[in-house]
Amino acid sequence: MSTPHSKVGHNDLQLDSYTWASSPMRRYMDIIVQRLLHSVLEKNTPSVKYTSKEIDLFCARFQEKCEKKAKFDTHVQILKTVNHLSRQSTQMMAIVNHLDPVGHNFQVSIPLNQVSMSQTLSIMYRHLKLIDQPKYDEKSQSMTLKWKCRVYSFTNTQIQSECLGAQMNMHVTPVQTDTWQHIVSALREEDWETVVQCVQSIKSSMDGKRELREESFNVQHHTEISLDLKVGRSLPVQLGTDTMCGQTFPAVQLVNINPQFEICVQHSKDPIKCFSEPPLQGSKKAYRSYNEYKDIWGKLCAVETAYNAVAENDSIIFEDVKITWHRQSAKQTLQGNFRLSLKQKQQWSIECDLKNCFLCVRLRDQTIDMQEDLHLSEIFPPWDLEEPQSFTWVAHGVTTKTSNATESKRLSYVQTDFILHHFSMENIPKSIFSENVKFTVELIPKKLPYVLNEHAIANLTHANCLVKSIVMGNKALGTISENSREKFESEDGHLPGFSPLNDSQKDAIKRALERPFTLIQGPPGTGKTVVGIHIVYWFFMKNQEAEATIPNTQDTKQPFKKNAILYCGPSNKSVDIVAEQVLKLKGVRPLRVYSDQIEMLEFPYPGSHLKVCRKSLREEKPNEALRKITLRYLIRKQDNPYADKITSFEKIIQTEKEVDDVRIAGYKKLLNEARQHELRKHDVILCTCSSASDPNFLKTMNFRQILIDECAMATEPEALIPLVAHSPEQIVLLGDHKQIRPIVECELMKKLGMKTSLFERYMEDAVMLDTQYRMHEGICKFPSWKFYKDSLKTEGEHELSALCSPSNKQTPILFGHVEGREVGLLVSTEKGNENSTANVEEAEEVVRVAKEVKDVTVCTIMKSQGSEWRYVILSTVRSCPISDINKELPRPTKAWLSKRLGFVIDPNLVNVGITRAQDGLCIIGNKNLLRCNELWRELLEHYEKLNCVVDPAKGIQVLNTKHKQKAKQKK
C-alpha cells in the first residue's frame, strides 16, 4: 500500500504519499471490491457471496460505463480546448503518425499534449498549395512535398537562401549518444540534479547553433522548397479552430516548413470564409430590379473570385513589412497600409494589380501571456524545460486602393490600403501596434476574368435598357424592324461558300434579325456556327446601309468610333471555330483579338511571365490559320504605322537585361495606339467574353450587335461582360444547355446557381435547330432520344463504318468492356487537377483500336465541343473492382457514384462525348461500374439490343482499310 518512500503523492488530496486501491465514493464496482477485501481480511466478518454470473454482469456494465465516461471526459476536454483556441491560437510540435503512399492526406498527433489534444489531426495535401504531386519513396518510406514560391524581404537580402537553407527544427534538439546515456542512467537512479544539469548543458550548447545556414544564392523570383515527410518526423504546426456541421473542433491553422516559410492552411482550406462574405441568397429566374440583381450576383461573384484566387496558387510573400495601422473602422475589422518602393516593385516584378488582391497578414513569434489567460495554462501547461508558449498572429483581408501612378512617381513608392475582416482568434495582440514590428504579408492576386465578372455586375447601372431588361428577366422586348428580315427572305438567305439553309436555320436567322434579343439552341451537328455566320453577314449589311444613309456628323474633337459587330465566346477555341468560318464571308473584315495573357506568351517583356496564370499555360495554342486576321500580328506588320517602333522596342527588350518601368510603360502605350489604329479598320471583332471589355474597344468601337457563341458554356456574369461594357441594339445568344455547362469549381457556387448560364435561364424562349448533318443515324439515335425528346432529324450521307460488332457486322457504334485500374493525382498543378485519373488498361485498348485509323487527335471532352471527327474512341477511364461495386448494389448512393464516376455521369458531358463522331463511335469502359448510373445503364441497354457490346474489349475488330480521318468544324 502507500509508503513515504514511493515519492508519489496525490495533488487533489494534497498528500505526499498515496497509492490508489479503490474509489468506493466514485464507482459502485469499487464498493464490491471493498466488500471482498474486508471479507478476506476480517475473518469475523461474514463472507460476501457473489456468483460468477453477477460478477460478469458487474464487470460488463462497469466497462461500458467507464468507456462512456472516458468519451464524455474527452469531449469535455475538446470543448475546453476549442474554447481557448478560438481566443488564442497556439503553436505545437506535431508528429507525423500516418502516411498513406496513395492518400490525399497525412495525419499528425500532438504527443506532448495528449490530455487536451488526444485525437489525430488530418492535413490535406491540396491545402498545402504544392507545386507538384507528392512523391512517395518506397525505399525511405517518405513523401516528398515541393513548393515554388515568390518570397521577397524589405530588409533581408538573403531571404531566398534562408528559405532554401537546411533549417534546424526549433522543436527538436539533437543529443549526443553519451549524453543521452548519462540522462537515462540518472533517471534510473532518480538522480534528478544530474538530469537537470545534463538537460541544461544540452540547451546551452544549442543556443549558439540555432543560426541559419547561409548559402551563396543568386536571387531569383521563384524559390523552390521541399520537405520529406515520414512517420515519426516532427512538424511544427499552429492550432486554431474550424467548424463543420455546426460543431467546432481543433484544426491545423499553420504548417511551419521552416522558420522563414509557413503555409496558411486556414485560407487554403476555406477561402470563402477568410476573404469574402458567404452569400445568403442564390440566383433567381427573375428580379424586381437590376439593383436586386446587383446585390445578389455581386456577392456570388465575390465568393467565386476568392475561391479561384486561392486555387490559382500564385501568391507573393513579402517579409519584414512595416504596416501603418489606422483606427478600427468597425467592430471586428482593422484598416492599415504598407508601402512598396518603385525600385522594389521593379526589381521584384510586381505586375499584379495591387488594388485587386487578397491579403494574409502574419506576425510570428508572439508570446502567450499565461498570466492574462489562466485558463489557457490549464489546457497547455508550460514546462520548465520548454520555450515559452508562442504563436503567429494571422488575419485575412482585401486591398481597397493604391496610390495612382502620378502620386506614386512623386513619392517614389506605391501605398496600398487594406482592410482586415477575418482573424484567426478573438484576441488581437497589443504587440501588433508596436513601432518596430515587421509583418509577413502574403499577397494573393485576384484573377482577371473573375475581377471582370465583378466589374460587369458592379457597372450594370451604366448598361443600356436592353441589357437591364435581360438581367431582370423581362421577356417582353418587342421587335426592332423587319427590313433586314425582308431582305434576307428576298435573297433566300444563301451565301456563297455555304450549303443551303434548312427551315429551322432560316427561322432562327429571321428571328435574330428582327428582335433585340434572340436565343438559338444548336444541338450537336445542327450548324449553329453557320447560323451565327449568316447572322453576322446580315448585321454587317445592315450596318453598311445605316452608315450610307446617315450623314457624317462625327465631331472631329471626339475620337472616331467604328460601327461594328462583336462576336464572343467563353473560350478561345469557341471563338477560333467561328473566326475560321467568318473568313469565308466576302467583303467582311474580321479581326481576331486574343487576351494579353496569350500575347505575353509570344511577345514577352521583363516581368510579364509572372503575370501569366496557370490556366493560360494549359490553354490550347492559338490557331495558326487565323494568323492573317490576328491583332497581335497585324500591329507588327508594315501596314500599321506603329510597327517599326514596336519592333525596335522589342529588340531592346531582348538585348538588355534590365528595362526600367518608364520604358515598359512607353512600350505598352505604343501597343495600345497600334491596336486602336487596327481596330478601326475592321467590321467584326472576335474575342472571348473576358476580353470584350478591353479599354481599346471602348475607345474605338461602337458595337451595335453582339453575338455570344457557346453561351451555355459561360457563367451569367461572364456573358454580361460584353453586354454591360457596350450598348448593343441587338443581342444573339447561341448555344446548347444540353451540352457543356459553365465550369464552376466551387461547390457552394454550384448550389447557388453559378452553373446556370444566361442561356439556360432563357432556354424556354430559344428557337431550336432540328436537323443534324454530322452523325450517322445509328450514332444519333440515342442522344436524340435521351437529350432532345427524339426531335433531331438526320440528313447527309455517311460511309460504312470500319468498326465491327462481335458478329463481324459493320456498325457505327461499339462499347468495349475493360476492367482496368485507376491512377489519380493528389493535388491540382499545371499538369492536371486534383483527382484527375488515368487508366493504363483502357489506354492500351484505345491505342490498339486507334492504330487502325489515320490522323488521330487526342483531347478531352471539355475541349472537344464544336469539333467532329470521322471516328471517335471514347475512354471513360473510371474503374473499380467488382467486389466494391457489389457492396453498393442494388442502389448506390449519390456520394458513392460521385466518388467512383465523377463527371463521367454528367449528362451534358456524356452528350458531348457521344456526339463528336461522324461514322464510328467506340466507347471503352467498365460496364459493371457504368451500369450503376441510370444514364449509362440506358446507353448500355441500347447498345446491347443492337449487339454492340464487346466483352472483353480485345474482341473489337476494325477493318484493315485505313480510313482517312479529318477533324472538321460544325456545318
TrEMBL record:
Q: Return the CDD domains for the record.
A: SF1_C_Upf1
The GO molecular function terms of this record are: 5'-3' DNA helicase activity; ATP binding; hydrolase activity; RNA binding; RNA nuclease activity
Domain RNB: from-to ranges? 6-42
Occurrences of domain DNA2/NAM7 helicase helicase (ranges): 501-744
- Asked if Hydrolase is a keyword of the record, the answer is yes
> SUPFAM superfamilies attached here?
Nucleic acid-binding proteins, P-loop containing nucleoside triphosphate hydrolases
Could you tell me the keywords of this UniProt record? Answer: ATP-binding, Helicase, Hydrolase, Nucleotide-binding
- Domain DNA2/NAM7 helicase-like C-terminal, by residue range, is 754-853, 854-927
Q: Does the keyword Nucleotide-binding apply?
A: yes
Q: Which family does it belong to?
A: Belongs to the DNA2/NAM7 helicase family.
- Write down what this protein is called: Uncharacterized protein
Q: Which organism is it from?
A: Albula goreensis
